[in-house]
Amino acid sequence: MKKNLLILGSLALLSLPVYADSDMEPVAKWGNLLDGSTAAGDQATGVTVDKDGNPVWFGNYGTTDASPDVDYAGTFLYSGALLNSASNTQNNNYTLLKTDRDGNKMWCVYSNSGDFANNSGFCAATSDGGIITVSKVRHTDGMTDRNISLTDATGKAHEVAWTCERRFYSILVTKVSSQGEIEWNRLIKASTQPGPAASGNYADFWADTFILNSGTVDEKGNIYISLNYRNPLYIPTVGGDDKVLTPANTASWNGDTQTAAGDFLLLSLDENGYYRNDLVLSGSCSASYCQNIVYDNGSVYAQGYIIGSGNTMQADSFTLSPSNIMSPLFLKADTDLKINWAKCCPGEQVAGKNAFQSVGISVYGNSFYVTGQYNLKFSDPDDSSKFVASTQGALREGFILRLDAATGAWLAARDSRDDDWNNPSAVAKTGLTGYLQPFVNPSTPETVYVYGYVMNAAVGVFLRGYDATTLEANLPDMQYNIITGGGVPSAQVIAFDDNTGSLYATARGNKAFTLSNGYTTPAPSGWGILLSRFDLFHLSTDIDAVTIVEESDAPVEYYNLQGIRVNNPDHGIYIVRKGSKTTKVIL
Predict the structure, then answer these.
(1) Which residues contact 584 (CB under 8 A, 6 or more apart)?
(2) pLDDT at residue 44 greater than cutoff 70
(3) pTM greater than 0.90
(4) Secondary structure class of 427 (helix, strand, coil)
(5) Domain ranges of the chain
(6) For the chain, is the Cβ count within 10 Å smaller at the N or the C terminus?
(7) Is residue 452 pLDDT above 60, yes or no?
C-alpha cells in the first residue's frame, strides 16, 4: 500500500521511514548462541529491555573444571565455577548479559562461585536504567566454605557473606546499574529445620524449601516476587532485623521437593531490596502457589493455583473454592497489595491427567491475558459453562484465556488445538505444545500474539495471532514459525519492546537453529540457548509523495502509540501531529 510521507521541515526528520500498517509478519534480524561448554545444558531465565531500548538477558549456564568457559556468539564470555565433573553434572552460573539492539555485547555480570537453580527467578528493568535480578542459589558443590561471588562488568568481585556446612537454597536479590556495576546484593534465607512429618532422606535437613517463580518492578523501584514457600523465610529489613514469614499448610510435608505443599506468597521489597509487605492466602489447602506477577498502571496482577482440600480459602475478603486438583488462581491488587479482585477456577482432570505449568500473563488495555501449557479443564467460578479444556491426556497443550482486567470477569478462552494451524497441521494437532507468553503490539491492538512451541523441529518456536477480543484464530495468516531446528526445540522467555516493535526471544535446543530469514546458527555444546530479535513494526519505502510542511506553520506535537503526549521524545515510534496532519515516524 502506498504512503504519503510528511516531512516536518527539520532536516533531522528527512530520513525517517514510514510505518507500513499492512505488513506485520515478524522479520528475523539476528540470532546468537549463549552457550556453556557442557552436555547437560543451559537455561534462559528472563529477558528485559532497559530504558535505552537495549535487551538484557538473564540465565544459568553450565561449567565444570574440564569445561569452564561460557561463550556468546562464538566468542569467550567468562569462566565459571570449577566443579569437579566426576562429582556432579555441572555447576549453573549466574549470567546477566546486556547487548545492543543488534546483538553486540555491551557488558556481562557473572558468577564463578555459587550454583544457581534453573528456571527460577527473573530480571526486570528499573526506571533509572538499571536491572534487578532475583535468583535461587546454593553453594557450588565442595565450596561451602566460600562466599557466593558475582563479578560485575568492571571486573570487580562482589562477595555475598555466606558460608555453611551443608548446601541449601536461598534467594539472592541483586541490583545492577546501567553500566553493569553491582550496586547491592540482599540474601533472603530459608529455614532448613525439618518439620514434624520429615522422613527418609529429609529427616534431618531441608535444603530446598521454596519455589521461586517470577516477578517484576514498578516505576518506583519496588520489587514483587512470586513464591511457593514451605518453611520460614528470613527477609532483611531497613532496621537490620529479619522479617520472618511462616507458611501454614506444611504440617504433612515430609521434605520431598516433588510433593505438593506450602503456601502462595507474593512478596514485595522496596527499591533497596528490603522487606516492604506481602500478600498471602488464608485457610486450609493441600498447596497454593504464586507463579507470575505483572505490573501495569498502578496495579499488580498475579497468577497461581491452589490444590484444595475440601475447604474454601480467603484472599482478603474474596472467597475462593478450589477443587482437589490444580485450580488456577488470578487476582489484582494495588501496590500496597490490597486485593481488588480474586478468582479461583476449579480444575478437572482430562483423561486422568492434570498439569498446569509454563504460564505467562500480560495486561493490555482492559484485557488480562493468560497463556500456559496444561492437561486440564478449568472453568469460570461464576459460570461453569465457560471453560477451557485440553483435548487429550497424553500430551500437554497450550491455552489462552482473556479476563477483564478491571473485574476479573471471564471473557474468552481457547485451546491450542481448537484450530488447524499450519506447518504441518498434523504435528500441530498432536505434538507436545506450549503457549508461554501473550503480548499485544500497540500498532495492531486487534491481535493478541502467543509465543510458544511444538516439540518438533519442523514447527519449532512460533508466534500465533488471535483476535484480541474473541480469541478466535485468524487462519492461516497468523502463524509464524520463527525458529525451527534445534533438535528437540523449546521456547523459553521473551520481551516485547512496544517502543520499537522488537521481540527479543530465546529458545533452547541441542542442534543448530534456523531463523525465519534462513540464517542457521552453529550447533551448541550439548544444550544451548539461542538469543534472537524479530521486528514486528515494518518500515516501508513504498512512498507516493512527500509533503513538506515548514515548522513555522504549526507547532509539532508527539504522542506515543497509546495516545499519550510526549514532551521530549526519545528513540521509538511516535505519532506526530502538526496542524491538522498526523503521521507515524521513528526517531
Answers:
(1) 18, 19, 573, 574, 575, 576
(2) yes
(3) no
(4) helix
(5) 548-587
(6) N
(7) yes
